[in-house]
Specification:
By secondary structure, the chain is of the alpha+beta class. It folds into two domains: 1-142; 147-292, Histidine kinase-like ATPase, C-terminal domain (Heat Shock Protein 90, 2-Layer Sandwich). It contains seven helices and ten strands. The protein has helices at residues 37-44, 46-99, 108-139, 151-158, 160-163, 185-201, 260-270, and strands spanning 5-7, 13-21, 27-36, 147-150, 168-173, 180-183, 207-216, 219-225, 274-280, 284-292. The strands form three sheets. The protein has a five-stranded mixed β-sheet with strand order 5-7-8-10-9, covered by helices on one side. The protein has a three-stranded antiparallel β-sheet with strand order 1-2-3. The termini are far apart. The chain binds adenosine-5'-diphosphate. Residues 198-199, 202, 226, 228-231, 239, 244-246, 251, 256-262, 285 line the site of adenosine-5'-diphosphate.
Length: 303
């Protein structure tokens, strides 16, 4: 057999042609092999290795730059959101005092203006709170707080806002006994308050809000369902995305930031759980939060 010819620099391909001869020395077959040129270059050694090394170095540089930019963005967000908090709280405080008449009688027109100013400030405060929460999540990306928390207690507290609603009826089923999970109580309360508040907000005509907690094996799951506006199948993919507001003719008058569900799911996922949703447009939605249970004992608060 005679040695074949290789053309490793053919653009994109390495082609090897190998003639096979009969016992009389005449070529009777040709074997042609086509291989990926990048693989051949790597096998060829030095030039491939140098190119590879340069590429890794340039990728590392770009990664470093992106990480520095990401940190700058987080620092900026942190600073601005913290700086916005105090003045907003002061404006909110004065507006509330005006609305309650503590600073003197208000004309009807002024009372209305103060009321809608309060609503706008509440939207801003909600946005700032969620941005702070987002920055906090970035900071604790690798190390979320995990202490034993009774989820039944947290869910009961989150359900209080439904009890205060005149248009909604609460159907609360927590099963019996505690439901311990690992996490931070304040954050878990924000997760459930957010989902319960959404259930109220997106069922403007009222109806039943069902909250059901189950302990299944090593898991605790909570269903929060409403009989509200529901979500179209084509919008379901945007539910848990950052700033993923779904604005339809039915929801356009309802305020929000589009950050709440994104934060809820991020947080629950970091604790090893998940948040999912099912919905029928025009009939209502069910959000399910699942978290791993724990056998660790929940510390009793001093109060
Ligand atoms: P928002 O601040 O807009 O309420 P969320 O992240 O909490 O942001 O929710 C994202 C979007 O999901 C909302 O804009 C709304 O359209 C939709 N959504 C959330 N909860 C419900 C619900 N219970 N019923 C119908 N739509 C909902």
């Amino acid at each position: 057999m005679t040695q074949g010819a290789t053309r490793p620099n053919s653009p994109g391909w390495g082609v090897t042609v190998q003639p096979l001869r009969d016992p009389g020395g005449r070529i009777d077959h040709v074997v042609q092999t086509v291989r990926d040129a990048t693989q051949i270059q790597a096998e060829d050694g030095h030039s491939g290795a140098v190119a590879h090394h340069d590429e890794v170095a340039s990728l590392r540089l770009r990664l470093d730059r992106l990480m520095a930019l990401d940190k700058l963005k987080s620092d900026f967000m942190n600073l601005t959101t913290h700086e916005l908090r105090s003045p907003l709280a002061i404006v909110y405080g004065y507006l509330s005092m005006m609305e309650s008449g503590m600073l003197g009688e208000l004309s009807e027109g002024l009372h209305e203006a103060v009321g809608s100013s309060i609503q706008s400030v509440e939207v801003m405060m909600q946005l700032v709170t969620e941005l702070v929460e987002m920055a906090r999540l970035d900071e604790t990306r690798l190390d979320p707080t995990r202490e034993p928390v009774d989820l039944a207690d947290v869910v009961a507290e989150a359900a209080v806002s439904v009890d205060g609603s005149e248009r909604h009826h609460l159907n609360l089923d927590l099963g019996s006994g505690p439901a311990p999970v690992l996490g931070e109580r304040g954050q878990l309360l924000r997760v459930f308050s957010n989902i319960v508040d959404n259930a109220l907000k997106y069922s403007p005509d009222g109806g039943e809000i069902g909250i059901r907690l189950r302990r299944t094996g090593r898991q605790v799951s909570v269903d929060i369902s409403d009989q509200g506006l529901g979500i179209a199948p084509s919008d379901m993919g945007r539910l848990f995305t950052r700033f993923g507001r779904i604005v339809t003719t039915a929801t356009e008058g309802i305020g929000g930031t589009g950050l709440g569900l994104y934060l809820c799911r991020e947080l629950v996922r970091r604790l090893g759980g998940d948040v999912t949703a099912t919905s029928v447009e025009g009939q209502g939605s069910t959000f399910t939060v699942r978290l791993p249970g724990t056998t660790r004992v929940v510390a009793r608060s001093a109060t």
